[in-house]
Amino acid sequence: MEHRWGKRFQLNDDAVKLRLRTGAVVAGRIADVSLSGAFVHAASGLPIYTYVLLELDSDGARQSGPECIPAYVVRAALDGVGLEWSEFAPPAIVARLPSGRRRVHAKSGAIEVSP
Fold it and tell me: pTM of the prediction?
């Protein structure tokens, strides 16, 4: 049974790294993202509640290095892991959503994503 509330978006199968507190790095590919999390195809069976930093390559707009988004593993599957962001709607994720589908309200800063 599906338990997700937010709209999910495809992100061109972006390659990512999951950095663990132990220093280990797990390579993966983003299957889809939402404002609250993502599913990442990865070969490693990370336990639920594992803290990770999802490392995204620069989107090209900036010349700085990769962006790291703190998250927790909330779902483990044979083909990957479901992550929940530590902070709702990380700017690095919002910036990657299709521009016609996101709006930021000037007064509240709230993010609205249309279907």
Answer: 0.77
